[in-house]
């Protein structure tokens, strides 16, 4: 590569997002170079090489970074990487997938972010709109990169996009027509320098919106009252709080969660969703997801008939408070997606008591003491596993009895041996899975398989 050439886009990271981005930029006639430090990315390398895209796999070359016209960073790549910092000091433009997507996209976007519930709410909105006859493309952090829509000839009315804080960190121009901020709790503190930085990243989803756009925000999100005063968009709130301190002239509409229904008010119109028949979606957090999704769907042109129809057919997603089975009167639940303490608190709140909690994995700056109150009320035994097990013992050892184990098989066996009929065994780890598994789904699948072994035995 000649040092004078600076016309290429450098795509950093070749997971699904990076691979799609490299293909998209190439299709747009851009010169592309792609790099990934992971030497196992041979499949991506082959796909890109067949398109004529140069790749650097298993290593990074600082010169390749420094000579790029633009560097497009995949969401999973830490922004303090030395190669990026050095290139930025040389004036190289560094951007992310959301801004590239925004440059070419012409379809209205509903964007959903939050610490927990993003995938469930995104899927709900897609299902609700489709039931109302609105054609959608669902993508983003949920699995399908957004630029895949730009390479697809299928016409849609609305893009429903799950958006992570990592994506928002490099988003300067991204402007969703409808933006949802579901909740913000401590997470990813291995990447952010404190909760305030993480919170700031989440609020960025609203920063480019104008008075023509819509913001749907959980009233319990930190700094709600002060932040909405600075937001230009039309504001709608949802909440499970019994009272509201927000002046009504600040809101264009709201959704309030009561014992057995969700009351939605948009200007002078009132809508009611009964939650009595939603047993497959346990927990107040799912009521909040429903409230947010219904508000977004109504504002995107949906109707209550389609929303109710979609909810009647909606099933809880895999590894999210999913009932596995009952073995000799003991109920097993897979909540492997609960990779932070707030998600675990919400899971514990779904049961009254007699919970055996399987906790642990790879930490992300996790403060396990945030679980102490709910554990004291509801948990009879913690089974600690993974890299975090000693930290769990040190933090919660005086709150609850703890058994350390070295494998999921032992965790399930120990839980079963200690349980009584009527007890709940809950896998809700509060940690990432990468110490023992490729992802949270693989961890959940292992849990399910071990529970099935119990039944077979």
Range of helix content? 25-40%
**Multimeric organization:** single chain
Number of domains: 3
CATH superfamily of the largest domain: Mur-like, catalytic domain
CATH topological fold name of the largest domain: UDP-N-acetylmuramoyl-L-alanine:D-glutamate ligase
Descriptive account of the structure:
- This protein is an alpha/beta fold and 457 residues long.
- It has 3 domains: 8-97, NAD(P)-binding Rossmann-like Domain (Rossmann fold, 3-Layer(aba) Sandwich); 105-313, Mur-like, catalytic domain (UDP-N-acetylmuramoyl-L-alanine:D-glutamate ligase, 3-Layer(aba) Sandwich); 322-456, Mur ligase, C-terminal domain (Protein-Tyrosine Phosphatase, Chain A, Alpha-Beta Complex), CATH 3.90.190.
- The chain has 17 helices and 20 strands.
- It has a 9-stranded mixed β-sheet, covered by helices on one side. The chain has a 6-stranded mixed β-sheet with strand order 15-16-20-17-18-19, with helices on both faces. A 5-stranded parallel β-sheet has the order 3-2-1-4-5, with helices on both faces.
- Helix 2 links the parallel strand 2 and strand 3.
- The mean pLDDT is 93.
Chain-wise SSE layout:
Blueprint: E1 8-12, H1 16-27, E2 31-36, H2 42-50, E3 54-57, H3 62-66, E4 70-73, H4 82-89, E5 93-96, H5 97-104, E6 109-113, H6 118-131, E7 136-140, H7 147-150, E8 158-162, H8 165-168, E9 178-181, H9 195-203, E10 214-218, H10 224-228, E11 234-239, E12 253-257, E13 261-266, E14 269-274, H11 284-299, H12 304-313, E15 322-327, E16 330-334, H13 341-348, E17 355-360, H14 372-378, E18 379-385, H15 389-396, E19 402-404, H16 408-418, E20 424-427, H17 440-456
Parallel strand pairs: 1-2, 1-4, 2-3, 4-5, 6-8, 6-9, 7-8, 9-10, 10-11, 11-12, 16-20, 17-18, 17-20, 18-19
Antiparallel strand pairs: 12-13, 13-14, 15-16
Helix pairs in contact: 6-11, 6-12, 16-17
